[in-house]
Design a protein that fits this description.
Blueprint: H1 2-5, H2 7-26, H3 34-57, H4 61-78, H5 90-99, H6 101-122, H7 130-200, H8 205-235, H9 240-244, E1 250-254, H10 262-281, E2 288-293, E3 298-304, H11 320-329, E4 333-338, E5 344-350
Parallel strand pairs: 1-2
Antiparallel strand pairs: 2-3, 3-5, 4-5
Helix pairs in contact: 2-3, 3-4, 4-5, 5-6, 5-7, 6-7, 7-8, 8-10, 10-11
Length: 351
């Protein structure tokens, strides 16, 4: 619906027409009729009410367009200044947004035809009057601008839908990569350990017992990774601070959290999860701290006191490449500072 895309346009035009009608009367530019002025104001008020109702109902677009058109005729008939005909510029605008380009162009042409027919019927020789010709030209210009604005709004809506589809596709790809890299690795390890148990069950029970313990540990890690993926998929429905508080580590928050979109919340949540998991599982850290700062950019920092690593060496299975790819999708960046024996600091910044 139009009110969902550009909610201020119609209301702004109604307000301008109302002020113009009042100015015409108060400035004494023409004869004042109290009854017609009251009806004019009531008609504009009804248009504002119609807009508010349409926002809530969000259906029956034909009925709302017909109601809006009827009120336009009523207001134009009651307005002694004749300025209310600018309201009809909204007809193709609304039709374009609600029913498509064809409907907008057809109704725009009809509105222009009605204006020309009206001038022909009530203003003889209007095509030789400068003021009348100027009115028609200005109305035509308004129609063109209204249709152009509607086209831009429709394109923006389609672009937003496309971005949402791409984000969903990127999320599916990430989950698939996580399953392949993490869950697949753990299941392979479990399979190997169970084969080892079967091979050494009778010859060396201690080796078999250790292999069984390793298999159980891999199963636990696999379950943790599954929970992490599920939690990440749900994260975008909640605030970033809420999901970060469930990581089980110290959390510092600086500034007030803005209204972050799903992709940003998911990116930062996943980055924190990955960094915390790496610190505990691979870095053997005793303390892990997460800090998030809200401002012109949102900055997430995860620090630990683990054993660290050489950032210049190729590393696989730690998810850093995936984090960088995810951050890039929302215009962010990931930096990792670490050296052997000094812990690790992972920083994610998102606009």
């Amino acid at each position: 619906m139009v009110t969902r895309i550009v909610p201020w346009v119609s209301s702004a035009v109604y307000g301008i027409v109302l002020l113009a009608g009042w100015y015409y009367v108060l400035a004494g530019l023409g004869p004042a009729n109290a009854a017609r002025l009251a009806g004019f104001v009531a008609g504009i008020g009804a248009l504002f009410v119609l807009e508010a109702v349409e926002r809530r109902v969000a259906r029956m677009p034909v009925a709302f367009l017909a109601g809006r058109l009827a009120l336009f005729f009523a207001v134009a008939a009651l307005d002694e200044s004749g300025l209310s005909r600018v309201l009809f510029v909204l007809v193709p605008f609304v039709a374009y947004l609600t029913f498509g380009r064809g409907a907008g162009l057809v109704l725009g042409g009809l509105c222009l035809a009605v204006l020309v027919c009206g001038f022909t019927a009530w203003v003889p020789g209007w095509y030789r009057d400068t003021e009348s010709v100027s009115d028609v030209l200005m109305f035509t210009t308004g129609l063109v601008l209204a249709l152009a604005m509607a086209d831009v709004a429709v394109r923006e809506r389609r672009a937003a839908s496309r971005v949402a589809e791409l984000s969903a596709a990127a999320e599916r790809n990430r989950v698939a990569r996580d399953i392949h890299d993490s869950l697949g690795h753990h299941l392979t390890t479990v399979s190997i350990q169970l084969e080892k148990v079967a091979a050494f069950a009778e010859r060396d029970p201690d080796v078999a017992g250790q292999a069984l313990a390793d298999a159980r540990r891999s199963v636990r890690h696999a379950l943790e990774d599954v929970r992490t993926s599920v939690s990440t998929l749900r994260a975008g429905r909640r605030s970033l601070v809420d999901v970060l508080s469930e990581l089980g580590v110290a959390l510092d928050v600086h500034g007030e959290e803005p209204d972050l979109d799903h992709a940003t919340v998911t990116t930062l949540h996943r980055a924190a999860q990955e960094a915390v998991t790496n610190a505990r599982r691979h870095g053997e850290a005793g303390q892990v701290r997460v800090s998030v700062t809200f401002g012109a950019v949102t900055r997430l920092v995860v620090t630990d006191d683990g054993r660290g690593f050489d950032t210049g060496e190729p590393r696989s299975g730690f998810g850093l490449l995936g984090l960088r790819e995810r951050a890039a999708l929302v215009g962010g960046a990931v930096t990792v500072d670490s050296e052997p024996g000094t812990g690790t600091k992972v920083t994610v910044t998102v606009p």
